[in-house]
Each structure stands twice: as C-alpha cells, then as structure tokens.
Design brief:
Elements: E1 9-11, H1 20-35, E2 43-46, H2 48-57, H3 61-70, H4 76-93, H5 97-108, E3 116-122, E4 138-142, H6 145-158, H7 162-170, E5 179-185, E6 191-196, E7 207-214, H8 218-221, E8 228-233, E9 238-243, E10 249-253, E11 259-263, H9 275-292, E12 296-303, E13 306-314, E14 332-333, E15 335-338, E16 341-348, E17 363-366, H10 374-379, E18 382-385, H11 393-400, E19 405-407, H12 412-415, E20 421-425, E21 430-433, H13 437-441, E22 447-449, E23 452-453, E24 468-473, H14 479-483, E25 490-494, H15 495-503, H16 508-513, H17 517-532, E26 540-543, H18 549-552, H19 558-561, H20 574-580, H21 582-598, E27 602-606, H22 612-624, E28 635-639, H23 644-653, E29 658-662, H24 663-671, H25 689-704, E30 708-712, H26 715-718, H27 720-729, E31 733-736, H28 741-761
Parallel strand pairs: 16-17, 17-18, 18-19, 24-25, 24-31, 25-26, 26-27, 27-28, 28-29, 29-30, 30-31
Antiparallel strand pairs: 1-2, 2-5, 3-4, 3-5, 6-7, 6-12, 7-8, 8-9, 10-11, 12-13, 14-21, 15-19, 16-20, 20-21, 22-23
Helix pairs in contact: 3-4, 4-6, 15-17, 17-21, 20-21, 20-22, 23-25, 27-28
C-alpha cells in the first residue's frame, strides 16, 4: 500500500499561507484568514497529498503524467481527447476506502447532514502571478457523504479539463498537477460578490472596488449578471461612485437543496448594498490587505446580517495608474477590466465552439467568456463582453494574458459588426470606431498593421556594440515595430509558423498531391516579404522547416505521410528530411527564391545538421534550385548537434558563411536530457561547463575558418555571466526575442567594457 506523505485532511484553523503545497492556494488563504480571526465559514481541506495517494492507489498516476506531457494546447481536437482520457483515469481511481472513512468523520464535525461547498484548490492557483480563475470545479449545496465523495472526485477530475491544460501551458507552470479540495459550511447568501482592495483596472491603490449581486456569488464570478460596482476612497473612507447593474436573475438554495434560479424583474434594477454596507465591506477589505501586506482580491457573502469572507488572493498583474485618454466619442462604454490600447477587426462569437473563426489579433466580442474560451482568448488581440464585472473570468484572464479587455458593455455583440475596425482602451473601458491608437497613446505610439498595435521596448540612443544584436521572429504582424528598434537584423526567422499559415492546416505532401503548391508558395512569399522588407538591407536569416514528425502528423493528411517515432526530438527532422523528401524542400526553396527577388536581405539557414554528407547533399539541392543561382545569398547552418564541434572546417570548405548556435538543442544533446522533460528539468543547464566548452569550441573554430558565429536564445539577456562568456569567446552576434533586446544590449555592453578594462590594465 502507498503511504501518504501528508495528512489526508486538515482543519482550516490549522493551516496558513505557508501551506500552499499541502492545501493549494485557496485553502492556504482561507486557513490564513480563519487563523487571523476574519469571518470565514468553518471547514476542512482534503490535501494534495491525499489526491496523489488516491491516484497512486488507483494505479493511474504514471498514466496521467504521460498523457499531460504529450498534450498540445494549440491542437483543440487533441486537447479534447487528452482531457477525456485524463478525467476518465481520475474517476477510475476514485476516493478509496481509507480516505472515504476520514472524509466522513471530518464532514460530521461540521454538523448533522450540513450543506457544504466543495471547492477546488490547485497547488499553483491563487498566487501572485496566476489565479486559475474559475478553471477548477466548485460545487455548492452538497449534502451527505455520497454527494461529498462524488464532488471530491469531480474536483480532482477538473484538474485535467481542456481549459486548465491550456492555461497551465500559457502561464508556463511546469510542475506535476496536484489539487487539494476545500469543504466548507455552505453560506446561503442573500447577497454576495467580490471586492478589490486596489483598483485592478487602473492600478489605483487609493480605491477599493466592490461588486455585488443578489443570491449566490457564482452569478458575479461567472459573469451571468451585471453586478453593482461601488468605488470607495480609502482616505477618507467614503463612497465616491455607485454603478447600478442590471440583474435579470439570482441563484438561491431551493427547497430540495439544489440551486434554484429566480427571475428578478424590476427588483434587478435596485441597489444591492446601501452606502453603510459598502463601507463595512470596505473596512473589511482594508483590514485583509493590511494583514497580507499587499492588495487583495476577495469574495464575500451576506447571510441575514452576517458577513462572511469566502476567498482572498493577491491581485494578479496589478498595473500602474494610466494616463487619461483623448476626448473622443466612444461607440461603447463598459468596465475597464484590463489596461492597454489595441486596434483590431471585430470578431463576434457566441460560444467557444466558434473559436476557430477568430484570427490571431482580432478583437474577440462575446456575451461572456468562461474557461472553455482560453484557447481562443490566447489568439485574440483584445476582448469585449456584454456582461460581467471586473472580477469575472474575462477580466482576470485578460489581465494575466496582458490583453486589453472591456467587460459589462451590455450590447457589444449586437452593436459591433464582424470585420469592423475598432480601438479598445482597456484603461478607460471605452470602444472607439477605427484606429485611434495614436490619439489615445500620443504621437510616440507605433502602429504595426491594420489589425493590431503593441508596445515594444524602446532602446533610445543605443550604445555602439562590437557584438551584433539580432532578433528572433515568427510572425509578420509586428515586423515594422521590431525593425524600428536598435537591432542589426533578424538572426532567426522561424519557418514553422509561416508555413503552418500558408499550408492552411494541410500537410505539404497532401497539398502537392492536390496540385495546390502554388497557393502555398504565394502565401509564403507574402509572409516572408512582409517581415523582411521593414529591415531594409539588414539581414533576415530564415531557418528552413524543422517540424518534427509528431508536429507534421497533426496536419491534415499527416497520418498518411509521417512515420510514427518514439523520440521525434532526435528523429526525422531538419537537414536529413530535405534529402529524403526533396519534393517538399524544393517547394520551400522556390518560395524563398521568389521572396528574395523582392527582399534580397533574406538569407537561408539549415537546421539540425548531423553529418557532412547530408549537409553536402542539402547544399547541392540549394545550388540546383532558383535560390542557389541568386547573387548575394548566404548559407548558414544551425549548430545544435555536438558533431559540429568537429566538423566546422569541413562545413566551411563546402561554402557555408556562418553558424548559429541553437543553445536549447545543443544543451539537450550535450547533456543527454530532453529539454521538454519536467522530471529532468534541473539537469538542463546552458551554463554547464561541458555546454560552455562546446560553445567556445564552435565559436573558436568558426573564427578560425572565417565564418560568422551567433547564438539564438534568451540566456544572453537573462544571464549577464552567460553574455560575458560569449563575448570572451569572440562571438559575432546574439539573437534574442524583441522584448529582451534592451537587456541583451546592456549585458553585452557591460561584458565588452570589462574586456577593454582588463586589456588596459594588462
């Protein structure tokens, strides 16, 4: 029998904020408030250890880990299948006899057949950087041990919903998923809502924002009604505004113990809270903030005359106070939910199943979102909803995704039309017709394309460097903005995203079989030139296709043309694929040749080169193509496979012009560790002595052979010591993501100055 390393069940009064690993974020915060004397309903927590023990005893823990590792949040169909398999495995494992007995004893301490709320508390949620807003399940009005055990398993299973898997990847949360479950006495709320001890939209810490609705609070956090919104000045404590929402219904506990929906009619137009009640809640919010020492997002409930706190967590991504906007006439006004200004074409969607209609960068307009919308929201440039308040799912997730959002507009889905160009100002809650971003942001703002605007780092008067700084790019949307930065060109233009768009989701072999390769070429040429043109004569280094077989198989027709590989990371990819499948490579080379006719600054780079003979064959294919006959073409190779350490003189003799170190692949192959493995993550270290020695040998050999050398990765900007190593080795350039350019320049400049000082002192 598997022994549990944690207690299976703990009382709320026994835990605090230091127990997140044991009871999850929600449980830890409820315990902290309970111990501090705040009005928290009594209850207990089924710990994360109890969940893991149950999965062990049920024989499914290894299966869960394996399925999660393969899940791709950008593949909706694959994500759905993975989610179904995961949840089925959890339900198969079940609660187990020992835990069920302990659960029954803990439940009895709350009263005789008491109604309880059963609430998921994942170990990564409700922290300062991620909230998992509404993603895991909550069940209200649960009564009896059978219902409680069933709700507990459903909470566990919700850890593997499609929306949760997608969110974890978006927020880069790598640990093995684990979940605790809070069980509390059910508050039969007459009124409920949420409150912020600082304004989450503007960042103003002198205000407290309170939202309230009739009945149970799920109508507020779920965006089912437009709540009242009250704003309170902290000093002196006074109500400065009250926006009365329109509430069509409330949810209450019915006579049978289950949730009952009651239509409100005219009663939905009145105030939920009096000014005196607002001030009492504001005092409570201020005390909670003082206890934690940081702004808090809280949920409250009033039953009769008694106030209860049922949740508190840090306000995620609290933004600074923004400046005022220009005096323009808005199309719509709602609640400022997530700051920022974005321009885009409207896409009205009425349900998450319509998500495939939304193109990247468009403005998603919806009645309201829930966690099932997360994959679609990832592609949106901004968000507008009919309903909801500043604490609904739309608002919280938009803030964490750094996407401007406006909620509670009431009429967005009927007032706005598909394809209409609008500007949304998430700081003020206003939607404007056309592109007015320059007016709102001032003359210094930079517009990228007709579909979106974004903010890029401003380098100012760039310090001259001996080491060149390039950028990594994948999309055409922001090429103009990036080209305006202090960069020397594009060191890595990834083919994969351009090709995926150009293929329209179809495998290239299937496209060729249909005779549609010309459409693919035209799309590729358009994407390549739109990226390369803004950089003028500065080089744009295009890395040819490096799809792995598991990625190609996801395209339409992929099953017919792709082999199954147990380890595609070191399988049929890169240079070797071009030799085995010259037909597809020839189409890609034709697209490059046509693009270079308009943008001759495009250069070509071959990835994942293992041997001299395959590189030689690949270069021969390039030379025989229209691309190879063009003047000024430079041919580079990625330095990812350790064999290149010994072969640079051979490669130079074949006529290559430079090497670019792919530090991710080089590190995993030098150390024998899968770079995507969560289990072995601590082994993956670009600064390991063996990796650094290989990098030094590559740069030294390239310099000796008269080749340029570069490194594609974030380490030069994230780790100044790594940047100094590269400078000392004599690297020609580095290539980083656009947002890392200022940090990379500073790190390289400091390293170069130190070398100069050392030479002077000698």
């Amino acid at each position: 029998m598997v022994e549990v390393e944690q207690p299976r069940i703990v009382n709320l009064s026994e835990i605090g904020v230091g127990d997140v690993d044991l009871v999850g974020g929600k449980g830890a915060n409820l315990g902290e408030m309970s111990r501090a004397g705040f009005p928290v309903p009594g209850g207990f927590v089924v710990t994360a250890g109890a969940y893991l023990e149950a999965m062990d005893l049920g024989g499914v823990r290894g299966e869960l880990t394996a399925i999660v590792a393969e899940a791709d949040p950008d593949d909706p169909d694959g994500l759905r299948i993975a989610s179904e398999r995961l949840q089925s495995a959890v339900r198969k494992a079940g609660v187990g006899d020992v835990l069920r007995a302990e659960l029954g004893r803990a439940y009895e301490t709350l009263g005789d057949d008491e109604f309880v709320a059963v609430r998921s508390s994942a170990t990564a949620e409700d922290g300062a950087s991620s909230s998992f807003a509404g993603m895991n399940e909550t069940f209200t009005n649960i009564r009896g041990i059978d219902e409680l055990a069933e709700a507990l398993v459903s909470c566990w299973a919700s850890l593997y919903g499609e929306r949760v898997i997608a969110y974890r990847v978006t927020q880069d949360i790598p640990d093995e998923p684990a979940i605790a479950v809070v069980v509390q006495r059910m508050v039969n709320s007459d009124r409920s809502g949420v409150m912020f001890s600082a304004d989450p939209a503007s960042g103003d810490r002198s205000h407290i924002v309170i939202e309230g609705a009739h009945g149970l609070g799920e109508v507020v956090v779920g965006g089912q009604v437009e709540p009242d919104t009250y704003v309170v000045d902290k000093e002196p404590r006074r109500v400065i505004s009250a926006r009365i929402g329109h509430q069509t219904h409330k949810i209450v506990r019915g006579p049978d113990g289950h949730d009952q929906v009651i239509e409100l009619g005219e009663d939905g137009h009145g105030r939920v809270l009096s000014d005196d009640e607002v001030l009492v809640l504001a005092d409570l919010a201020a005390r909670v903030e003082q206890h934690y020492g940081s702004p808090q997002d809280m949920e409250w409930a009033i039953e009769g005359d008694e106030i209860h706190l049922v949740q508190s967590r840090p306000i995620t991504t609290l933004q600074p106070v923004a400046g005022s906007s220009a005096d323009l006439e808005p199309l719509l006004v709602g609640l400022a939910a997530s700051p920022g200004v974005v321009v885009g074409a409207v896409r009205v969607l009425l349900g998450p199943e319509e998500g495939k209609q939304l193109r990247a960068g468009e403005i998603l307009v919806a009645p309201m979102t829930n966690p099932d919308w997360v994959p679609t929201m990832r592609r949106a440039g901004g968000l507008i909803t009919d309903g909801g308040g500043m604490t609904c799912h739309s608002a919280i997730v938009s803030r964490e995704m750094r996407k401007p959002a406006i909620v509670g507009t009431r009429t967005a889905t009927t007032a706005l039309r598909n394809g209409e160009l609008v500007t949304i100002d998430g700081r003020t809650g206003k939607v404007y017709e056309g592109d007015v971003a320059a007016v709102l942001e001032g003359p210094s703002s930079v517009s990228a394309t007709p579909t979106t605007t974004m903010t890029m780092p401003v380098a100012g008067e760039a310090e001259p460097l001996a080491t060149r700084v390039y950028v990594n790019l994948a999309f055409a949307e922001h090429a103009g903005e990036v080209a305006a930065m202090a960069v020397d060109g594009v060191g890595l233009l990834r083919a994969e995203f351009l090709i995926t768009e150009a293929l329209g989701g179809v495998h290239p072999k299937a496209l060729i079989a249909r005779g549609e390769q010309q459409t693919f070429i035209d799309q590729m040429v358009s994407g390549l030139t739109s990226i390369a043109a803004p950089f003028g004569t500065r080089p744009v280094v295009y890395r040819t296709t490096d799809f792995r077989t598991n990625e190609f198989r996801k395209l339409e027709g992929g099953d017919e043309f792709e082999p199954h590989e147990e380890n595609p990371m070191i399988g049929y990819r890169g240079c070797y694929r071009y030799i085995r499948d010259p037909e597809v490579f020839a189409v890609e080379l034709e697209a490059l040749a046509r693009a270079r006719e308009q943008a001759p600054n495009i250069q070509v780079m071959i990835p994942f080169v293992r041997t001299a003979w395959e590189l030689e064959a690949c270069l021969e294919a390039i030379d025989a193509s229209p691309l190879g006959r063009q003047r000024g073409l430079k041919r580079l190779v990625m330095a990812e496979v350790p064999s290149i350490v010994y072969r640079i003189p051979e490669y130079a003799a074949m006529g290559i012009d430079g090497v670019s170190i792919g530090s991710n692949d080089l590190t995993q192959l030098m150390l024998g560790v899968d770079r995507d493995s969560e289990t072995c993550a601590e082994l993956f270290d670009e600064s390991d002595h063996a990796v650094l020695r290989a990098i030094e040998d590559i740069i030294t050999a390239a310099n000796a052979a008269g080749l340029t050398s570069s490194l594609c990765g974030q380490a030069p900007s994230n780790r100044p010591d790594f940047a100094e190593h590269l400078v000392r080795f004599g690297i020609t350039s580095v290539s980083v993501n656009p947002d890392a350019v200022p940090d990379a320049r500073r790190a390289l400049a400091a390293a170069e100055r130190r070398l100069v000082l050392e030479s002077v002192r000698r």
